[in-house]
Amino acid sequence: MILDFKGRHIISIKQFTKEELEYILKAANQMEKYYKTGSDLLKGKILATLFFEPSTRTRLSFTSAMYKLGGEVISLSNPEMSSIKKGENLTDTISVVQSYADVIVLRHELEGSAKLMSEVSQIPIINGGSGTKEHPTQAMLDLLTIKNEMNGKIDGLKIAICGDLKYGRTVKSLAYALSHYDVELYFVSPPSLRMRHEVISDLHSLNVKFKELNDLSEIIPELDILYVTRIQSERFPDPADYAKVKGSYRIDVSMLNRAKENLKILHPLPRVEEIDYEVDHTKYARYFQQAYYGVILRMALLALVLGGSF
Ligand code: NCD
Question: Is the pTM of this model over 0.90?
Answer without folding.
Answer: yes
